[in-house]
Design brief:
Helix content: 25-40%
Number of strands: 10
CATH topology: Jelly Rolls
Radius of gyration: 20 Å
CATH class: Mainly Beta
Number of domains: 1
Distance between the termini: 14 Å
Largest sheet: 6 strands, antiparallel
Length: 301
């Protein structure tokens, strides 16, 4: 590697580590390396939690044409889980949450300063249904063995209380080292023909966390979700990120949402997350070599 590239890599790493230290997240880096995930408590304020929940409920009620009481809903009102996509443009609160400093610092450690927002959505879960099967987020056609270097990573914000009975996120500690997807016997298993309960994946740990807490994980880490056994709904916000060379799940940069970028004109990181340094997708005009010259040089940028 050329000397200039080595220097750039070291400077990016230093910036990231300085930011992690300033935010008091060094222990979280250790968790990410050893467990494959980490919990940062109290990331979201009560105001942001309520604004996000209200925006998600508006979307769900608009798409289902029914009122849903988040505290008392039954399976007749909303059964099982439905993914609610493309939330960034529904309300300004999601822009604010995207830029929360602590989770973003840990995502930057995993994916580098040039990483992209791949998608922002909610796993909206009512009573009953089936568990969310355990998987690695490398499921977008990435063959095993996976790279030990994180190619994608996730932030899962709890917007309602998490517990096993409430349909919590399930994590499998250390699974990021296996570099593959789980096999059938390592997953949730269906009840017997005579009935009974779903059987948990071996080693699964329910995330017993409170609204506003965030779980961040390496893209290789196995995770899923328990069935909800209680009335009401579980709401989260899943911010999924990828390295710059990976196709994002959602399309950003649509002129219809130009106002979102305009609101963050003084924050270049926001623009990068939405693809400002993504050089690909040209037409007859060909590549923009100025942007291509900013391509990442290594793990950190």
């Amino acid at each position: 590697m050329a000397q200039g590239q080595t220097g750039s890599r070291d400077q990016a790493l230093r910036r990231i580590l300085d930011r992690v230290t300033a935010l008091g997240l060094n222990d979280n880096l250790l968790d990410l390396e050893t467990q494959g995930y980490t919990i940062v408590p109290g990331v979201l304020s009560a105001s942001r939690i309520e604004r996000a929940k209200a925006a998600i409920l508006r979307r769900v009620e608009r798409t289902t044409s029914r009122r849903i009481d988040p505290l008392t809903a039954t399976a007749d009102d909303f059964a099982g889980m439905q993914y609610i996509p493309y939330l960034l443009y529904d309300d300004e609160v999601f822009e604010e949450i995207l830029m929360e400093p602590a989770p973003l610092a840990l995502i930057t450690w995993l994916l580098g300063e040039s990483c992209l927002l791949s998608s922002l959505g909610c796993h909206f879960r009512g009573p009953g249904g089936t568990p969310l099967m355990v998987h690695s987020d490398n499921g977008n056609g990435m063959p095993a063995p996976f790279s030990p270097i994180s190619m994608v990573a996730n932030v899962n914000y709890a917007l309602t209380p998490y517990s096993r009975e409430a349909g919590a996120l399930a994590m499998i500690p250390g699974s990021h080292r296996l570099l593959r997807q789980p096999a059938a016997h390592e997953n949730f298993r269906r009840p017997d023909a005579d009935g009974g309960e779903w059987k948990d994946p071996p080693g699964a740990v329910p995330m017993d966390i409170q609204p506003g807490d965030a779980v961040i994980w390496h893209g290789n880490t196995w995770h899923g979700g328990y069935r909800r056994e209680l009335p009401g709904v579980r709401m989260n916000l899943s911010a999924y990120f990828s390295r710059q060379h990976i196709q994002t799940q959602e399309r950003h940069g649509d002129p219809a949402h130009a106002g979102v970028l305009a609101r963050h004109a003084n924050d270049p990181r926001f623009a990068v997350l939405l693809g400002a340094r993504q050089p690909y997708g040209w037409r007859e005009e060909g590549p923009d070599y100025a942007i291509m010259g900013q391509n990442p040089r290594g793990l950190y940028d």
